[in-house]
Amino acid sequence: MTRLALRRPDDWHVHLRDGAMMAGVLPDSRHFRRILVMPNLVPPVVTGAEAAAYRARILAAMPPGQDTEPHMTLYLTEATDPADVVAAAASGLVTAVKLYPAGATTNSASGVRDIDRVMPVLEAMVEADIPLCVHGEVTDPAVDIFDREAVFLDRVLDPLRRRLPGLRVVLEHITTAEGVAYLRGAEGMAGTLTVQHLMLSRNDLLAGGIRPHYYCLPVLKRASHRAALRAAAVSGDPRFFLGTDSAPHPTAAKESACGCAGCYTAPVALACLAHVFEEEGALDRLEGFTSLFGAAFYRLPPNEARITLEKGAPWTPPRRRATGAGPVTLFDPGIALEWRVVE
Ligand code: NCD
Ligand code: ZN
Fold first, then answer.
1. Measured in angstroms, how far is the CA atom of residue 231 from the centroid of ligand 2?
2. Is 11 one of the annotated active-site residues of the chain?
3. CATH of the domain at 308
């Protein structure tokens, strides 16, 4: 197969940042009709009013002709007001609430330390049918960084779901076989998968030299976990769908003695996914993963418009995206990209 028509994809987890960085990266999401925008700005997007203002800034930065629709998230803090969350969702402004365990990842310092303190918000979300997106890693310094997702399932997620069985939860950027197994048995849950976790293992990050542009959180795991993620992605199980977690940082902040976490995958995400699904002999399952299952979880209709992917001579994406906040290095999957979106 050398041509593939898909319904317009959606990206259910993306970091746009703000200001000059946002203006530089937003065009790279143009093939996606809907994007779920993460709220981990500094300061974070906590209230409905802050989400409305951020959404307005996104729309103002959108290039003419780009019809990507931003769906907003609120950053859950221990001071979040349940009534504000419910009102923001009821007005259609906010699609989900994001739980960052405090200290788990980039700009998560205002996140949740004690889940008991956010129970009133979570209870209101059950009542109002608002999904919770979860960064699923414990922050206990005693837990090895490669184990933090699996331990989170046992210590935090499973107890939470027993307390609030009606809460609809998205386990974001799943990186482990344990995460996949947990989801397969869970009603009312979904999980997003990223491009880098489907393509790479921790060897790519660490063997033969440290590659800062492959460093993200949750950190890449061993190849057997990647195999489990790939199997989930191509399985046709609607619980698994695309959230790129495309996370731009200035190149200098990644190529550093203490580099930031995040892979800037938006510009190459669809080309990479076609490659992965073709390798798995599952190109016919790509549309469900990119364009149908996420919308269904968020109770939205599938997009009507189509995009076309074409397979041809290998092409080389630019290495860097210039932005007003400095250059950002694109994710390089380390393979020849043969698929591309033809506009
Ligand atoms: C994200 C970022 O840079 O904001 N980084 C990452 O490594 N994924 C935060 C996140 O989603 O964890
Ligand atoms: Zn993210």
1. 22
2. no
3. 3.20.20.140
